[in-house]
């Protein structure tokens, strides 16, 4: 029997994804058809990205799973027509990319690099930065990405606290969880990394109240989602000096509108949602593995909890 796989992750991604997907499925010896178009009643799996024009899943009655090539699912998780299991991307190069991006930006702030990279007055200010062990870092979100980032930061010697929804133990860091753990996690943090999903429970998690908890002059690094931050509260915290600098990769509206104050605020670095992305060769392996699991009657990996929204 042929397994029919609809690639609905955007026509622009087809050339990158089709060859590694075929290679991974060929290696497994699966008889399949992979195409950008096929009759909906034939489709067994949909390879998907939330920016796809496909929004109505009703005609795909035989579809066993929708396999998202992104980690974030906020744009699709609430789709009422999507009754099939939804898996998100874990791995696929995302973790390595995110670890590198966060470590780079955390070290920039930790080492005070900006003072030396742009020093037009040629100030000689020989103050060595503190050691990582003297720097308190908090990572909000201890999932696939947050836990990898937290562990690498701890591996460099940073004093790391992580926060998640449910209790979690990770060697080398302190952990907090739930609403009651948030204050403890934020209190005194000098670098704050946001790697939470965008859900009703995480929206505006950084607001006027919670932004008062980190150490004065803290650094905020947000590669999670724009909705995690109340933009006005962050701007006020930057203006008061409570936050020294915010490095923001994600925004409520993307591309960030040209008149948004983040573009011109001296305490903000804007990066255009580049912290990490799924690489087709590695991502195709993850998708193929889930298809093979489905065909073998095994449970799918990385299923989204529709109730929790991530
Ligand atoms: N900027 C980029 O380029 C880029 C690239 C990829 C991903 N992202 C973003 O990164 C996010 C995280 O990805 P991931 O793969 O690490 O996700 P994940 O594995 O689903 O992990 C999410 C983490 O957030 C925690 N969490 C969720 N809701 C919470 C709540 N209400 N209170 C406390 N903790 C909560 C979860 O707690 P539990 O452990 O208890 O479940 C988990 O630790 C994605 O959702 C996406 O928005 C951005």
Task: Write structural notes for this entry.
- This protein has 310 residues and is α/β, with parallel strands linked by helices.
- The chain has 2 domains: 3-92 and 278-295, NAD(P)-binding Rossmann-like Domain (Rossmann fold); 94-270, Rossmann fold.
- The chain is built from 7 helices and 12 strands.
- It has helices spanning 14-27, 94-111, 114-117, 144-155, 178-186, 231-240, 280-295, and strands at residues 3-8, 32-35, 45-48, 65-68, 86-87, 136-140, 159-164, 174-177, 191-194, 218-222, 243-248, 268-270.
- The strands form 2 sheets. It has a 7-stranded parallel beta sheet with strand order 8-7-6-9-10-11-12, with helices on both faces. Strands 2-1-3-4-5 form a 5-stranded parallel beta sheet, covered by helices on one side.
- It is elongated, with a radius of gyration of 21 Å.
- NADP nicotinamide-adenine-dinucleotide phosphate binds next to α4 and β7.
Write the layout of secondary structure elements.
Elements: E1 3-8, H1 14-27, E2 32-35, E3 45-48, E4 65-68, E5 86-87, H2 94-111, H3 114-117, E6 136-140, H4 144-155, E7 159-164, E8 174-177, H5 178-186, E9 191-194, E10 218-222, H6 231-240, E11 243-248, E12 268-270, H7 280-295
Helix pairs in contact: 1-7, 2-4
The structure holds NADP nicotinamide-adenine-dinucleotide phosphate.
Q: Strand order of the main beta sheet, please?
A: 8-7-6-9-10-11-12
Q: Give the bound compounds.
A: NADP nicotinamide-adenine-dinucleotide phosphate
Structural class: alpha/beta
What name does the CATH topology of the largest domain carry? Rossmann fold
Mean pLDDT: 98
Major beta-sheet overview: 7 strands, parallel
State the helix count. Answer: 7
CATH class of the largest domain: Alpha Beta
CATH superfamily of the largest domain: NAD(P)-binding Rossmann-like Domain
Give the radius of gyration: 21 Å
Proportion of helical residues = 25-40%
Low-confidence stretches: none
Oligomeric state as shown: single chain
The best one-word shape is elongated
The first-to-last residue Cα distance is 33 Å
Compute the number of strand runs: 12
Tell me what the CATH architecture of the largest domain is: 3-Layer(aba) Sandwich
Task: Work out the strand percent.
Answer: 15-25%
User: How do the helices and strands follow one another from N- to C-terminus?
Assistant: EHEEEEHHEHEEHEEHEEH
User: What is the total domain count?
Assistant: 2
